[in-house]
Sequence to fold (281 residues):
Amino acid sequence: MKPHYLILAITCLAAFAASDPARAQEPHPPASQCQAIAENMPRATFASFSGVAVPMPTVSEGESVKFTYLGHSTFEIETPGGIIIATDYNGWYRPATTPDVVTMNKAHTTHFTLTPEADIKHVLHGWSDVPGEKAGINLVVGDAYIRNVTTDIRFSYGLGGSQEDGNSIFIFEIAGLCIGHLGHLHYELTDSHYTEIGRLDVVMVPIDGGLTMGADSMSRVIKRLRSSLILPMHRRGPPVNAFVSMFGKDFDITYAPDDSLTVSMRTLPKKPLIYVMKGVQ
Fold:
């Protein structure tokens, strides 16, 4: 190709790209450490995208994250930088300090509130109010990076049927830890879900035995996630043992005397540990 034709071709391609917003503004997902392995697998997708790369928080080795069980499926997560996060926030179980971030799911009214306190800076819905769209969370708050993976839910109160992407698994990347809250999980996860989630060092799991999934189904999810620390929650009816009995010698079990736990990358158990906090038992 002659030089002047080459220049013309490059100019035309540039003009075409500039005229097409989808091409001119390719999304740049943040570098999720939890997806570092999963992003090279087939069918890997990110939960959400933004037009520009999101700067990741810096991580200092040995920093700890504090978990406090408040009730039902609400945990308070406190980051090393002092950011307070409340999961499946319904306004009934409140941290002592107004949270900076609350996450919500809508399977039942015990997992959300439409009237959160006005001074909560970030209210993150695990569902979209726009038909046919997914909730897309991709947010850095202080030293926490928060994203979501959507899942289907059954309609409540015997209405039958289900809603695609009606709820979310929220994932928090803090102090080098990959932390997941399974929310009101109704169906076993697909290969695509596991790919989107990536690694989870800590996972908060509902163990009600039926309102979400049966103990056998939920245990299969936990065994595949292979998290170092499993924090049961959302116990309604069946005893904790109904869930714990699904696990063999590859898992340790601790019944804690209190409702808080502080953990870091250094202190993660070497063997998967089911850690049952006070209030869940």
